[in-house]
Amino acid sequence: MRRRLLALVCVTGTLVSACGMLPGDHERKTVTVWLMKDSASREFLQRFTEDFERTHEDLRLDIRIQDWTGIVEKVRTALKADSGDGPDVIEVGNTQVPLYADGGRLVDLTLESMRDWGKEKWLPGLAQPGKDGNKQYGIPWYAANRVVIYRKDLFEQAGITRPPETRDAWLTATEKLDSGGNQGIYLAGQDWYTLSGFIWDEGGDLAREKDYAWQGTLDTPAALRGMDFYRRLQALGRGPADADEEHPPQAGVFAEGRVAQIVAVPGLAQSIVRKNPELKGRLGFFPVPGRTAGRPGAVFTGGSDLVVPRNTDDQFAATAVVAALTGATWDTELARTMNYVPNKTTLAGAVAGEEGVAAMAAGAAHGRATPHTPQWADVEADNPIKEYMTRVLNGADPATEARRASRKITEALAPDVG
């Protein structure tokens, strides 16, 4: 009991640690873990710390909470530190793994992934960005992705008795909903994450690597088909062609009460109801439809991986923490606590009782991530995909604009030779 009280007392808002030795304790090795703000609740970290230290009597946890702002440079600096001076485990955004794997500063966890951690069941949108060639550096922790949030009452009024399961059925339903002063869907013209899913569904991509060089591929027939579907869907509402989903924030637009659907993470429903309490109980969720029934559409998968820096002075201890956090017991507990998607397709049943998360998990099974190159951040910095979308929605020739945007992507992805 005394040990339990000590573990709870030593938890703060920014640090979780078994911050002292009881008289007679043998010396424990401290494992420093960097986790991002709001990724896990304080209560979850308390329970995890207590359980981990009980089952690993030679280790103690020092969990330090980090802000997303400025984290890239902070992590890069930590990866270059002398052995033992930095964190032993770091949470990173799934698409950030290439930034840190570049230069050989992360531990290769391929063996553990294949032998112990069941990597064949991981969500592809988390696992693929964590690889560099055949080596696995990022270990999937949790995921979140977009679903369709819809007004159940407006669907009922339009005679739509069940959510659509195919793209064609989605268009048909949205056309019915786009009447009587209501928008069938509010889809901003520059929501390039949603566009990416349509492109992937068609077999296309934003960029591809060929002969060790990356090239923009928005001008392929498959990618153009994805853009055409986006254009047809976006026209069934009044989303601005020249802005993304945050300008204005689509939660506020939906809360005004004349929108039947948006594409967003399920958690946005809470913001909508706070803005318009009359919508409580009227919102539902379904996966973004795919081309065929029974297979939801591809979606961009956000979330986090865990990595181990090469400069850790105890790789075995660091790996033990990763194994515990990403193992079935604590990964499903985190998913239930925070309304996330667990890291494996086989764990989706753990969140089946929550409608929004269940819809998210169904889509996550077909999730993808942005092109696996450190230079992708340069593409997003001056995003030519957004400009391309606006031009097409305003009537420009899609093929011409796709070639223009693809050239800009290729230029941004060219390695820095300076």
Radius of gyration, taken over Cα atoms and rounded to an integer in Å: 23 Å
Distance between the ends? 60 Å
Low-confidence stretches: 1-24
**Mean pLDDT level:** 91
Give the CA-based shape. globular
Which CATH architecture of the largest domain is right?
Answer: 3-Layer(aba) Sandwich
Number of domains: 2
* Number of distinct beta strands: 14
How much helix, percentage-wise, in residues? 25-40%
What is the CATH class name of the largest domain?
Alpha Beta
**Describe the biggest sheet?**
7 strands, mixed
What percentage of amino acids are in beta strands? 15-25%
User: Count of DSSP helices?
Assistant: 18
| Structural class computed from helices and strand pairing | alpha+beta
Kindly report the name of the CATH homologous superfamily of the largest domain. Periplasmic binding protein-like II
Q: How is the CATH topology of the largest domain named?
A: D-Maltodextrin-Binding Protein, domain 2
